[in-house]
Design brief:
Elements (H helix, E strand, L loop, with lengths): L1 H18 L10 E4 L12 E4 L4 E7 L12 E4 L4 E2 L12 E7 L8 E2 L4 E2 L5 E9 L1 E7 L12 E4 L4 E2 L12 E7 L8 E2 L4 E2 L5 E9 L1 E7 L12 E4 L4 E2 L12 E7 L8 E2 L4 E2 L5 E9 L1 E7 L12 E4 L4 E2 L12 E7 L8 E2 L4 E2 L5 E9 L16 E4 L3 E3 L4 E7 L3 E8 L13 E3 L9 E11 L4 E11 L1
Parallel strand pairs: 3-9, 10-16, 17-23, 24-30, 32-37
Antiparallel strand pairs: 1-2, 3-4, 5-8, 6-7, 6-9, 10-11, 12-15, 13-14, 13-16, 17-18, 19-22, 20-21, 20-23, 24-25, 26-29, 27-28, 27-30, 31-33, 33-35, 34-36, 36-37
């Protein structure tokens, strides 16, 4: 009976020690159990070796920037312990909590939150952290060809070098201009290869700058004025071309617009026309040489027709018409042309050169035949008088003229401008030296009257010019 009571006392003592929190006594330590019985068994001591009844599991908030670690737990020998979760909301800026580890540097045994701990040993478990990463994606928005760069991963706190246009993105009429956090370009802009430092996931959209084209103007040999200022043509949008805003002028020419080639062989554009080509261009001023109308009047003629009108080109002499329409006036000989109907203007010989850069009407001029000693032919005959010689005479220089007549001549009479003057000669040829006193400077009509044996007279004339 005494032996049974001793064993029972030992058991009670052992349970009591556990209840009193004597966890994990040192291996081999003695637990003294004393019986209080007064039945003759006094001060019975039993040495009990308790080898690890329980173990302390504590938690460290290693490297956290906020929160608290879980409360310590007690692991009972031989039983599993459910480890704590992140009940104290531990956080670390830029990192994600990933569980526990028996070593600070993570080289020990890892444990997930709520995992089972079976080791019969005390332990401190350290919070483990994984650095955050952020996805950086690229969008081809607006492109007409090419591919977006591959996605990148941004690590917290470390700048990321953004992609270039590695997929050769192209948009017709636009130039690739980099990346933006907003599809419409209203967000944060990033150049290709720039550093992305934000600790956040992002989609970067391709951004585009619409192409523009310079339109410049070349005055192309003006004599005055300036070319218009350059313009900018935007892709896909028509441009209204400049007028002759700088008052370009070229002597003898009329401004007629613009051309893509200096010699006018390219594409022509009128002033204020619409330019739709999506390309830079230089437009050259175009010039049309001026022309002048030369018309003829049969003033005073009884028959025949005036020559057809001619066109005089600026800077180029025009050979005037002869009496190609056989103009006739009774009692007169056709003497050439004049810029005034009454003969008071500038005279021109038939076939003479017209050099003035202006439109003109030339009137037929007539020289009256002599009334004394001549029979006036009022109907056309086949006899003609032709004078040959240089039309330009100079003071002090001998001038010579010859004549031809297709009939039999009885006499010859040479006159200057009028038949009423004294003849300058009476042979079929004429030679004389112009003098200041006898021959005025300027244009004159040299005339020859040939009389045949029947007393019929025929005349011819030539326009001459007396100069210094």
């Amino acid at each position: 009976m005494k032996q049974q009571r001793t064993v029972l006392g030992f058991l009670i003592a052992a349970i009591g020690l556990a209840l009193l929190g004597c966890a994990n006594p040192a291996a081999g330590s003695a637990v003294s159990v004393t019986s209080g019985e007064n039945n003759g068994v006094n001060n019975v001591e039993n040495n009990v070796v308790a080898n690890g009844l329980s173990y302390s599991v504590t938690y460290s908030d290693y490297n956290s920037t906020g929160g608290t670690p879980p409360a310590a737990q007690t692991k009972v020998n031989g039983t599993s312990l459910i480890l704590a979760a992140n009940s104290g909301s531990l956080v670390r800026t830029g990192y994600t909590f990933t569980g526990w580890n028996t070593a600070k540097d993570g080289t020990g045994t890892p444990y997930a939150e709520g995992a089972s701990y079976t080791a019969n040993t005390a332990v401190t478990l350290y919070a483990m952290w994984t650095i955050n990463t952020y996805s950086v994606n690229y969008s081809t928005i607006g492109s007409t060809s090419g591919t977006a760069p591959a996605a990148q991963t941004k690590t917290h706190g470390i700048g990321l070098t953004l992609a270039t246009n590695s997929g050769s993105l192209v948009r017709t009429g636009y130039t690739f201009a980099g990346w933006n956090t907003a599809a419409n370009g209203s967000g944060t802009a990033y150049a290709v290869g720039a550093s992305y430092s934000a600790d956040a996931a992002v989609t970067l959209f391709a951004t585009w700058t619409i192409n523009t084209y310079g339109v410049t103007y070349d005055a192309n040999s003006p004599t005055s004025g300036t070319a218009p200022a350059s313009q900018t043509k935007t892709h896909g949008i028509d441009l209204t071309l400049a007028a002759n805003s700088g008052s370009l002028v070229r002597t003898g020419y009329t401004f007629t617009g613009w051309n893509t080639a200096a010699n006018g062989s390219g594409t022509a554009y009128a002033v204020g026309a619409s330019y739709s080509a999506n390309t830079a261009v230089t437009l050259y001023a175009m010039w049309t040489i001026n022309t002048y109308s030369v018309t003829y009047s049969d003033t005073g003629a009884d028959s025949g027709t005036a020559p057809a009108a001619q066109t005089k080109t600026h800077g180029t002499g025009l050979t005037l018409a002869t009496n190609s329409g056989s103009l006739l006036r009774t009692g007169y000989t056709f003497a050439g042309w004049n810029t005034a109907a009454n003969g008071s203007g500038t005279p021109y010989a038939a076939g003479g050169s017209y050099t003035a850069n202006t439109a003109v009407t030339l009137y037929a001029t007539w020289t009256a035949l002599l009334d004394t000693g001549f029979t006036v032919i009022t109907t056309p005959v086949l006899h003609t008088v032709t004078i040959s010689g240089s039309p330009t005479l100079h003071y002090g220089t001998l001038a010579s003229f010859t004549s031809s007549y297709n009939g039999t001549a009885a006499s010859y009479a040479w006159y200057m401008d009028t038949y009423t003057a004294t003849p300058k000669g009476s042979a079929s040829s004429l030679s004389f030296t112009p003098g200041v006193a006898t021959d005025t400077y300027g244009s004159h009509v040299l005339m020859l009257v040939v009389t045949d044996a029947n007393g019929l007279s025929y005349s011819g004339s030539i326009q001459i010019s007396v100069q210094n």
